[in-house]
Amino acid sequence: MHPESTGMKIEILEFTEGAKQAKGLAVIIDVFRAFSVECYAYDCGASRVIATSSIEDAFELKKQYRNAVLVGERDERRIEGFDMGNSPTEILLGDVLGKTVIHTTTAGTCGLANAVNCRPVITGSFVNASVVAEYIKQTGADHVSLVAMGYRANLSAEEDILCAEYIRSLLLGETRNYDNEIADLKYTSGKRFFNPANINFSPPTDFFLCTMTDRFRFILKAERRRDGNLNMERIDI
């Protein structure tokens, strides 16, 4: 059924403030790279993903889970003492099979933590955008907040806005093709992946892995834990 005929309201918000203001069903979007990384982690066999906005909480969580890996970044770079950076390439090359992935980033996981007025809260990225839209339709939500987290949660990022527009178009039943716009991100917000100075923490492969549209048939739903962090539940669609 067409969202307009059901009265579904769809709004696009930005940054941490947008997450705080979000209502209804929230989709927290971080294409480069947080919520692409979490999808690849599950696809590579992670048994659990826990998101936190705090480095300190990440280290505390690792003490609770014997078979855990710390994944995340600050200023795009791997955090000291972490096992991997916020990189799908590192996830693919590393070993997360059967492990708990504890994940913290500058923008994405912070957005999840601040979406306190929404239920459910799910993630969004190009790699599973179509099933995100399918899931939203299945819930019958009447208000959808698409939150583009942006670069470091304070600068608009073309990839997150474009992903929000793509999900909105799917909800509205539009047939617009976004392939060229997604590919052209390598000349704008994605050009940092092609800077040789960044190859150790933002390699070119990350760009291509994060822009593989609709690679996965599952969504990630955030469930708040008693400790304030979030269990990221994989739901196959």
What are the SSEs and their pairings?
Blueprint: H1 3-6, E1 9-14, H2 15-21, E2 24-29, H3 34-43, E3 48-51, H4 55-64, E4 68-74, E5 77-78, H5 88-93, E6 100-104, H6 108-114, E7 118-124, H7 129-139, E8 143-148, H8 158-171, H9 179-183, H10 204-210, E9 218-224, E10 230-236
Helix pairs in contact: 2-6, 7-8
CATH architecture assignment name: Alpha-Beta Complex
Overall pLDDT score: 95
Envelope shape: globular
The CATH class is identified as Alpha Beta
Main β-sheet description: 10 strands, mixed
By oligomeric state, this entry counts as: single chain
- How does the helix and strand content classify structurally? alpha/beta
Report the strand count. Answer: 10
**Annotation field: number of helices:** 10
What is the H/E order? HEHEHEHEEHEHEHEHHHEE
Strand order of the largest sheet: 1-8-2-7-9-10-3-6-4-5
List segments where confidence is low: pLDDT < 50 over at least 5 consecutive residues.
Answer: none
Approximate helicity band: 25-40%
How many domains comprise the coordinates? 1
- Strand-residue fraction? 15-25%
CATH topology: putative 2-phosphosulfolactate phosphatase
State the end-to-end CA separation: 18 Å
Structural overview:
This protein has a single domain, classed as Alpha-Beta Complex (putative 2-phosphosulfolactate phosphatase), CATH 3.90.1560.10. A 10-stranded mixed sheet has the order 1-8-2-7-9-10-3-6-4-5, sandwiched between helices. With 237 residues, it is an alpha/beta fold. The protein contains 10 helices and 10 strands. The two termini are 18 Å apart. The chain has helices spanning 3-6, 15-21, 34-43, 55-64, 88-93, 108-114, 129-139, 158-171, 179-183, 204-210, and strands spanning 9-14, 24-29, 48-51, 68-74, 77-78, 100-104, 118-124, 143-148, 218-224, 230-236. It is 34% helix and 24% strand. It is globular.
